[in-house]
Amino acid sequence: MGTEGMVQLAEKIRTRSARVGIVGLGYVGLPEAVIFAQAGFRVSGFGVNAERVALINAGKSLREAVCTLSRTPAESLSGESDHQARDTAKPPG
Fold it and tell me: Would you call 37 exposed, middle or buried from its count of C-beta atoms within 10 A (0-12, 13-18, 19+)?
């Protein structure tokens, strides 16, 4: 990534228009996704457990450690268990 790309990325982070991807929605990934979503980023989480992903997309917390999920805007955090979607995601820019 050149200097121009770094400047664009920094601006997207500053304005919270960067999209964050989290691989794994377990003990580490889910709280991390919640923190980014609450900070104003759009977050896509990728997990292998379709049942867990469905609960996340329904706005239901899986563990007390991430009970703040209920206070996270629904449009900010989504889960995905279809790895084909992850593999075909377009890079930013």
Answer: buried
The overall average pLDDT reported for the chain is 78
Residue 1 carries which side chain, given as an amino acid letter? M
Count the helices and strands in the chain (H runs, E runs). 4, 3
Cα–Cα distance measured from residue 61 to residue 70, given in angstroms and rounded to the nearest whole number: 7
Radius of gyration of the CA atoms of the chain, in A: 14
Q: Is 45 left (phi over 0), alpha (psi -120 to 50) or beta?
A: beta
User: Can you give the pTM of this predicted structure?
Assistant: 0.65
**Triad 44, 47, 50: Cα angle to 5°:** 110
Section 15-35 average pLDDT: 90
